[in-house]
Amino acid sequence: MRKNIVAGNWKMNNDLAQTQELIADLKKQVSADPAATIIVAPTYTNLYPAFKALKDTPISVAAQNMHQNANGAFTGEISAAMLKSVGVETVILGHSERRAYFKESNELLAEKVNTALENDMTVIFCFGEELEDRKADKHFDLVQSQLKESLYHLSKESWKNIILAYEPVWAIGTGETASPEQAQEMHAFIRKSVADAYGSEIAEEVSILYGGSCKPGNAKEIFANKDVDGGLIGGASLKAEDFLAIVNSF
Ligand code: PGA
Fold first, then answer.
1. Is 23 near ligand 1, meaning CB less than 6 Å away?
2. Annotated catalytic, 139?
3. In this predicted structure, what is the pLDDT of residue 36?
4. Does the annotation mark 77 as catalytic?
5. What is the pLDDT of residues 58-97, one digit of tens each?
């Protein structure tokens, strides 16, 4: 049975004290047996304090990015082994902000995915179309090539450590959400694409999250779709109450 997952991407928000405060709120409010697997992704500097504070809770910690090389002269970068050494087992790769502002290509992301998997990490792989792609009716092709170029070289075995996150770029941080129908249509397309590449067993097992202006007020109708297995939450993950209301939308 595939998992329902709600992940909070805190992006470049919250210093140490604010991170500790948010975590304290989450710990106070989270139920002992939540309706979904819960993951939060603080900034690099707050990963270790977050890991320590969340250790015996149902909430686990992910990084927002990672370098593809094992180590070496890559000033400012962080490796998979460094993340693992501070308790981080999951990494978000391919977020649209990384693609847009840091020019991360499908090819580079394939390398990062390989490195994460070689280090036994779980990858939350983000992808999705821009508004122009959708207007030009190219969104399915675009998503297909993102999947193919970054993931479809992987072995069948690797897929147990892959979580997909469809995030239409036009819905991220804009207040504009994909309608439940648009989300389901794309998620069904993604699952079929994985089934065509790897067979239906793997396609049925992979969790496909939706991201883009997901809030307590719309999460329930988005998550009710058969191929939507949760969400990757930006803005609304910065308040414990809102984030946990989204978790409780299953
Ligand atoms: P948002 O961000 O929920 O603020 O739209 C989603 C994301 O970037 O993962």
1. no
2. no
3. 97
4. no
5. 999 999 999 999 999 999 999 999 999 999 999 999 999 9
Evaluate whether 229 touches 2 at the Cβ level (below 8 Å).
Answer: yes
Q: Is the pTM higher than 0.85?
A: yes
Domains of the chain, earliest start first: 5-248 (3.20.20.70)
Structure tokens given for 163: 């979580």
Q: Is the pLDDT of residue 220 over 90?
A: yes
Ligand 1, residue 96: give the atom nearest the CA: 8
| Of 16, 23, 13, residue with least CA distance to 56 | 23
Ranges assigned E (strand) in the chain: 5-9, 37-41, 59-63, 90-93, 122-127, 162-166, 208-211, 230-233
Q: How far apart are CA 231 and CA 166, in angstroms?
A: 9
Token readout for 103 is: 């020019």
For the residues of 68-97, what is the DSSP string, one character each? SSSSSS-TT---HHHHHHTT--EEEE--HH
